[in-house]
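Risk mitigation, structural track. In case the binding assays with 9MR fail to produce interpretable data, a predicted complex structure has been prepared as a fallback.
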Amino acid sequence: MIRCRTSTMVCILTVTLTFGAATAGCDNNEKAVPTVLPPVKSERTATPVISDSPRVEGLRLHVDQVGYLPESPKTLVVAADEPFAAMTVQVVAKGGDEPVWEGMLPAAKADENSGDWVARADFEALATDGAYEAVAGGNRSAPFLIGDDVFDDVWTKVARSYTAQRASFEQDDPFTGLKLLAGHKQDKEARLFFKDEGHPSVVDVSGGWYDAGDYGKYVPTAAITVGQLLAAFELDPITAAAPFLTERETAFWPAAPQAPHLLAEAKYELDWMLRMQRRDGAVYHKVSAMSFPAYILPAEDLQDRYVFGLSTFGTALFAGAAAMGARIFEPYDSAYAEKLLDRAMKAQAWLSEHPDAYFRFDEGQDTGSGPYSKPTDREERLWALAELFKTTGDGKYEAYILRDYADMLGKPPGTVSWNNAQLLGQWALATAEKKPSAVRDEAATAIAQAADVIVGRIGEDDYRSSLAANEYKWGSNQNALANAEVLLLANRLKPSKAYANGALEQLHYVLGRNAMGMSYITGVGSRYPLKVHHRISLMSGVKVPGLMVGGPNKFGGDQTLAKVIEQGAFPAKSYIDDESSYASNEYAIDYNAPLLFVLTEFRSQEAD
Ligand code: 9MR
Ligand code: 9MR
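Fallback model:
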């Protein structure tokens, strides 16, 4: 867990109650000039003087609907369809009128990505725990909290979202009331879609998590998700150890009583990934039926299920996640750790024998599931070798990297996703301890360079989003948080307030301080998606909390979103809370992965 130490204390001591008094230690906001009024609960006798705040119709006050950490920047954005002049902005206790903080909102300027007129203020100086609302021109924001533990509840919801995705598992969730029969019994005897000479044609691929709103199960998203959850655990073993599972949800793992729940949940997926591995080390690509299921519950989808494809990039992703697991599960279940290492090595041996990128595609394999295809595999091979090196300390893996992937080590990584594992590879090399890598510094510098670019973009964006205009694409929310992940890893290597704060800003962005004024995570905040493309939520009567949707996507991808775009929606507003918009309003395991990663860094250490 990290905390953004700021100059809050200095601010509180030095500001005056007059507007226009720029204060030492509050130089992070060039526009609004903050004024700190004594907090509501203080023993103040006189009512503070508040300048007139005339009514301005139609202002939308966007805040993080969950909240802000006491000692961190606290930006709110005011948006409108028309330009507006500078005005006072206040923070009041929730439901109250008396300001506890007051500042000036500058005149609005046009925001390119949303098409709105916007102005920003930062009430960083307000550091007193409590529930608040912001007010400007007579308009109020959604309520929000200030406190050290504001992200704890979201963390738990997001962690439990994986539990709700479990296939072959009877759901009986005492928190939400979700009750489901175990789905897809067929997966115990799934058929291979293609003729695989010398290998069984029927495979047990039961278990694992459903990928998203559909019931497919895919190795690339599984591995990159597990990789990020394990990375979060390795980075923050204390905060990531907060319990969130019931006894029956950990019962599948005998070692569970001694192990953190996050590892138990990750193991549920890893167990499935192991079933996807062929005897010779190669890893099959995905499991699904020939058609996307109708809007039905998992146990009602009785279509035959198939195992499709095989790839070098997926096999490498498998090896990366399994090698990581070998290291991280060791203290809790050494037999399992050994098995993971053995399987990671088998995958690597197969990859070494197949040096060219290969993605097997059989006609018809995408009729009922997403393609998740990648024709290249270098980023993933780098990750696999780097994790094997970090786990074993065996120099042969590093030698292999230096021979074949040296060109990538100093290259700033893109954000992590199912089709780019480079960052995780560089991170493993920068942090290997058993045998420190010769390219440790090079890898660390590349991560910091990527972080610097992201910090620059955040600084230019009115909403403090890290997304460039062309990054409002399918899964943009995942992208914003994956950028935050780069920042947090860079922050570990070269601590910088700009990195930590920039990451926090991405969390604020997805939790409500965005052009839609929505928390993009179900059941979190006060305005969140109600019609997620998620069959379990649509059909069970329980809206599963903690699901982050893909978010604004200016390129479209479904008919409902196409209409929104046709009507002229700007990139940051190319979104619709409708179940038919899977290109903007579907949840996926790999969207929640960087979200959980970032939340783990910012949740409190209090185990709940
Ligand atoms: O439910 C499917 C979702 O998970 C995918 O992201 C999406 C794109 O591949 O497809 C969804 O399924 C739709 C299919 O593509 C077309 N027919 C309607 C299906 C349900 O909306
Ligand atoms: O997350 C995937 C995104 O990167 C792709 O652009 C998109 C189109 O291929 O597919 C997304 O993944 C979907 C998958 O194909 C089917 N299951 C639901 C996934 C989330 O929408």
